């Protein structure tokens, strides 16, 4: 057997794919999918799920990011953008 890790295709559970090939496979398999729309995890785009809240409870990429001390410091020290004339300067008009 190979040394590669395998994952299950979110669009067809009968598809067992090597993880390094998953992004390309998902693009192809998504075209033929006829079920309810799946949401894309913003921490790993190969994660496609129906219920994002439930997914984030188990998503190792999300859990790793919230445990990262540097991320926590950045989130707590974030300064909101300065507004001029009632408009947010960080967004273009």
From TrEMBL:
Pfam families: zf-U11-48K. One of its GO terms (molecular function) is zinc ion binding. Keywords: Metal-binding, Zinc, Zinc-finger. The keyword Zinc applies. Residues 6-33 form the CHHC U11-48K-type domain. This is Gametocyte-specific factor 1-like. It comes from Drosophila suzukii. The lineage of its organism: Eukaryota, Metazoa, Ecdysozoa, Arthropoda, Hexapoda.
């Amino acid at each position: 057997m190979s040394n590669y890790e395998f994952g299950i295709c979110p669009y067809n559970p009968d598809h067992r794919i090597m993880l390094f090939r998953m992004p390309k496979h998902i693009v192809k398999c998504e075209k033929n999918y006829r079920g309810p729309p799946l949401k894309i995890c913003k921490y790993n785009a190969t994660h496609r799920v129906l219920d994002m809240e439930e997914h984030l409870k188990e998503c190792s990429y999300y859990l790793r990011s919230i445990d990262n001390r540097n991320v926590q410091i950045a989130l707590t020290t974030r300064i909101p953008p300065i507004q001029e004339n009632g408009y947010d300067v960080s967004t273009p008009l």
